[in-house]
Amino acid sequence: MAGVLRIRRDLVDEIVAHARRDHPDEACGVIAGPDGSDRPERFIPMLNAARSPTFYEFDSGDLLKLYREMDANDEVPVVIYHSHTATEAYPSRTDVSYASEPFAHYVLVSTRDPEEHEFRSYRIVEGVVTEEPVEVVESYMFAHTGSDDTPDA
Ligand SMILES: [Zn+2]
Q1: Where does the MPN domain start and stop, copy by copy (predicted)?
Q2: Interval between CA 55 and ligand 1 midpoint (Å)
Q3: CATH number, domain 5-137, options 3.40.30.10, 3.30.300.20, 3.40.50.1100, 3.40.140.10
Q4: The predicted structure's pLDDT at residue 90
Q5: pLDDT of 84 strictly over 90
Q6: Would the pLDDT of 5 be above 90?
Q7: How far apart, in whole angstroms, are the C-alpha atoms of residue 97 and residue 86?
Q8: CA Rg, the chain, in Å?
Q9: What spacing in Å lies between the alpha carbon of 147 and ligand 1's midpoint?
Q10: What pLDDT shows up at residue 141?
Q11: How many CB atoms lie within 10 A of CB 138?
Q12: Phi/psi at 46 (5° precision)
């Protein structure tokens, strides 16, 4: 299924800042959004329980708490992100085998370059990785893809 990740610039900045902060370990987290909206809204940085430069793992207790919280708010994990600190922003074989959310955008950030980051998004469904374009917007309200730029009042 081809798609696009439309995401607010401030959320991209938060993800990149988290990845830079935890470098050289991998950073990971979730951006939750309303069920059915495909709109990432609530930034939730998580702890990398593995504290590893080559692997990430959500703490199982934290994850359970987060899923309960999202259930209560009618939210889903729209974006699941983590960083690669020495390699490109592409899902590793381990990432693919652990990917269990077919409707999530799997975001990979690479911090291997201290100046420039890579920020890419994928769908991972039954072991198949499909990269999708990332559209960074200032606000979801004014996000248009056509030439008509007149915002709805
Ligand atoms: Zn990875």
Answers
A1: 5-128
A2: 6
A3: 3.40.140.10
A4: 98
A5: yes
A6: yes
A7: 20
A8: 15
A9: 37
A10: 83
A11: 10
A12: -115, 165
Residue 10 pLDDT: 98
Which three-class secondary structure string do you get for the chain? Answer: CCCCEEEEHHHHHHHHHHHHHHCCCCCEEEEEEECCCCCCCEEEEECECCCCCCCCCECHHHHHHHHHHHHHCCEEEEEEEEEECCCCCCCCHHHHHHCCCCCCEEEEEECCCCCCCEEEEEEEECCEEEEECEEEECCCCCCCCCCCCCCCC
Q: Which amino acid is at 79?
A: V
Q: Is the pLDDT at 1 greater than 50, yes or no?
A: no
Ligand 1: centre distance to CA 132 (Å): 17
At 125, the amino acid letter reads V
